[in-house]
Amino acid sequence: MMSKYIKYVFLGCLSLILVLLQLSNLFPVIHKPVLATVTTQVNSPTDFVKIGKQRYQREQFVQAIALWQQALDIFIQTEDKINQAAVLGNMALAHQKLGKLELANQTISKSINLLNQNQNPQILAEILNIQGSLQLSQGEAENALNNWKEVTNIYQKIGDQNRVNRSLLNQTQALRVLGLYPQSRKVLEQVNENLQTQPDSQLKVATLLNLGDTWRVIGNFDAAQDVLQQSLEIARKINSPADIDSSLLSLGNAAFAQEKNQDAIKYYQQVIENDNSDSLKLKAQLNLLQIFINTQEWQATKTVLGQIQPQLDKLPVSRTQIYAQVKVAQSLQKIGEKQTAAKILSTAIQTAKTIGDQKSQSYGLGYLGQLYEENKQWQEAQKLTEQALGLSQSNNAGEISYLWQWQLGRIYQAIGNSENAINAYDQAVKTLGFLRKDLVASNSNLQFSFQESIEPIYRELVSLLLENQQTKKSKDIEQENLVKARDLIESLKIAELDNYFQEDCLSGKRAEVDQVDPHAALIYPIILSDRLEVIISLTNQPLHHYSTPIPQAELEKLLQQMRSSLRPNLSNRTRLRIAQKTYNVLIKPTETYLAANNIKTLVFVLDGTMKNIPMAALYDGEKYLIEKYSLAQTPGLQLLSPQPLQNQKLNILVAGISEARQGFTPLPGVEVEVEGIQSEISTQVLFNEEFTTADIENVIRETPFPIIHFATHGQFSSDAEKTFILTWDNRINVKELGELLELRDQDANNPIELLVLSACQTAQGDRRAPLGIAGVAVRSGARSTLATLWSVDDQSAAEFMVEFYRQLAKSKITKAEAIRLAQLKLLQQPKYRNPFYWAPFVLLGNWL
Predict the structure, then answer these.
(1) pTM of this structure
(2) Spatial distance between the Cα atoms of 182 and 176, rounded to a whole number of angstroms
(3) Do the Cβ atoms of 755 and 779 come closer than 8 Å?
(4) Which of 13, 259, 565, 683 gets the most CB atoms within 10 Å of its CB?
């Protein structure tokens, strides 16, 4: 059990350290020391400034500050306030590099005060630029953005277009940290367009680098590769070694993000061999180290560690050095060299104390505590972790605090203090709640893993809350813990979708629905390491709960067998046996409870790989589940304004493609499907060549159809960029689909009641692909989404869809019941008896 915890923390910590090592890529383009024009003379303050700048560029920050202090003393004597302000700006940058952020803030404030008294727009712009850099490094991205907007305005007034472009480029860094990647991309594309007619320059390289990194974050790796390759070519043309290495490093990161490890290794090794910059070389080595750890290549790991350790000695005393030491210590821990790891961490902690960098000190103490935790020295582990947490909290560093809160929770659990363990986990979850946007932004870094750094915290807390429920002292405590566990799973589902879209997409626009249908049961299966927990919510009833002792690995195997058994070529006996076994685990314990409460509809909030399984195909030994209940799914307890569809006038937009396009096979059944729908309901059709991206956009903008039906190839994937539907001339990914449907979503009185995707399928080999269905359901803004878990025979799909609309049009029934009746019609036909034909249709969202 402990090894699992260490794995999670190790990868999560590795991620955060690498994030911090790469923060220099987020600093402003203009962050070089500035100097107002002064008269040059031997031993003048200008000489001190110039030499200080050279020391700064060599990362000799302490010496740079000493030289600039001498220049500052002279400028104070001569009452030259403009140059005082400029030198103070330089010093603030150096303090920042040393991790002395409070001193950096004080210094930049003095600089700005001097400039407010003595107007010099250009110097003020440079100082505000530096202040933006400080703010961004301290998590104040919004303040940094506002500062850089002011800088842009100053340069626009001066008429300096080159610096306007630079300040716009700075703005994109803040936008990325805020998680506003589409806006960042648009500004970058604007700057790139502005520079097209300009000669090749470092600014052009920086723009392309940032644009490429943004494309990587968004998940468009082809665009990232193309843009980063351009940046590399320009860097080579202008013979800029640092830019060449930065481009190679970003190309390596893009390859690493796609798990193209060999390509990533090639790029990182080029940076290392070029040896143009100690800091870039170290970043490449650390990323290379991460690859070897991930792939468990321990000999290569030891080799790279041996190369990195001498590099650490070359670094100036700074936050960068401390983070690198911590990263190396973690790697040593991974290969079992705990004593050496502890010594390096102790050195890092002492260095952090020396330079007054409490955030770095928190990292060192926390990971040293983790070493003691792994060694089961609980008292020392607790003490170090508490010290680390105190420092991170006093510095408002939530991205660190949640790790130590999690670590404390594990320690308390290990020593049998469940109450304190739950409290610590609670605090970690609350911190994560505050960090939603920041965590999405941090996912731009290669090593961040939602499944390894975030999800386990929720699941481990749920496990603690639901352990031994029957031994609780009172029903009130039992219900309190059940409600809390359910709410945690809700929060986890929202966080999962935020992570999927790389932005905070589910803020406060939903209404609870467990009170709207007295004949519906909301079922929450929760997969834990040693058991399956199930929580059931009925209208105006206490939460019901049961637990099945089945290890996660065994359950995952059963679910995989269930999915595989739905192929048409498997024997009926084998399929039914597996379907019944799955039913017994998930539904059988609550059969009596559901019957006693006259439940007609089961609404599942499915967990993990359960999302790959059509609940309709579960079998109780006599009947399939769809023969007993209407079924639906929801990403969570919340959905948009639930109300019955029959109150709406049915008017459908159908867009379909029957012919082969873009390498996809023809769908001859689509024509039958479209004609059948037209015969049942008022329909506008875009068919084959009429179904272009532009045409569908125009029609959606002009007419508020309550139902939009796509009968075309498409794919659901755990990668948002690979979740798409096919038009005649293009592909529309899930984010673009959301933007397309938003063209009419402004009219709250005419929302999209139902979005139908009748010929899409989940990506092969992608166990988390159903997340794409939930993504489409949420991003489209539709109250309900009807989709398929796999590519359905298009003839059976046509029959299903026609019957579904027939039931919807003529009967006062819910959408879920209309789907059930359509599935039963297929089930009753011998040629479609196999669940392969009727089971994959799933309804997400409002089932009414």
Answers:
(1) 0.78
(2) 9
(3) no
(4) 13
Q: What is the pLDDT of residue 98?
A: 77
Contact 783, 846 (CB under 8 A): yes
Q: Which residues is 642 bridged to in the sheet?
A: none
Q: How far apart are CA 773 and CA 259, in angstroms?
A: 24
* Residue position matching structure tokens 């999800």: 455
Q: What is the pLDDT of residue 769?
A: 67
Tokens read off for 643: 């109300």
Distance CA 672, CA 665 (A): 16
| 195 sits in which H/E element | helix 181-195
C-alpha of 33 from chain center = 35
pLDDT value at position 190?
A: 85
Give the Cα separation of 598 and 214 in Å (integer). Answer: 52
pLDDT at 512: 54
C-alpha dist (Å) from residue 690 to 658, 668, 682, 701: 12, 17, 19, 16
Of 96, 66, 71, 102, the C-alpha closest to 85 is 71
Query: In terms of Cα–Cα distance, which of 13, 23, 101, 26 is closest to 402?
Result: 13
Q: pLDDT averaged over consecutive 10-residue blocks of the chain (848 residues)?
A: 33 26 31 45 78 83 91 92 92 84 90 83 90 81 90 92 87 79 81 85 88 79 90 95 95 91 96 89 92 91 89 77 90 90 95 83 96 96 98 86 97 96 96 70 45 88 84 72 92 77 54 70 95 94 94 97 92 95 97 96 94 96 98 73 62 94 91 93 94 92 90 84 89 84 63 86 67 73 87 90 92 91 97 96 90
- Give the whole-angstrom CA distance, residue 254 versus residue 233: 17
Task: Concatenate the DSSP letters of all residues of 168-181 into one string.
Answer: HHHHHHHHHHTT-H
| Residue among 586, 581, 582 at smallest CA distance from 547 | 586
Strand partners for 731? 726
Rounded CA Rg of the chain: 30
Q: Are 110 and 88 contacting, i.e. CB atoms less than 8 angstroms apart?
A: yes
Residue-wise DSSP of 617-632: G-B-SSSBGGGT-EEE
Domains observed in the chain: 199-299 (1.25.40.10), 511-639 (3.30.420), 645-845 (3.40.50.1460)
- DSSP tally for the chain: helices H, then strands E: 35, 15
CA-CA-CA-CA dihedral for 579, 581, 587, 591, to nearest 10: 100
Query: At 532, is the secondary structure helix, strand, or coil?
Result: strand
169: which residues sit within 8 A by CB, 6+ positions away? Answer: 28, 29, 187, 188, 191, 203, 206, 207, 210
User: What one-character-per-residue DSSP string does 369-424 give?
Assistant: HHHHHHTT-HHHHHHHHHHHHHHHHHTT-HHHHHHHHHHHHHHHHHTT-HHHHHHH
Q: Which DSSP string do the residues of 206-243 spell out, in sequence order?
A: HHHHHHHHHHHHHT-HHHHHHHHHHHHHHHHHTT-HHH
Residues 6+ apart with CB under 8 A from 738: 779, 780, 781
| Helix spans in 295-337 (H) | 298-314, 319-334
Which residues lie below 8 Å from residue 343, measured CB to CB, with a gap of 6+?
none
Cα atoms in the 13 Å half-sphere on the side-chain side of 3: 3
DSSP 8-state class, residue 359: H
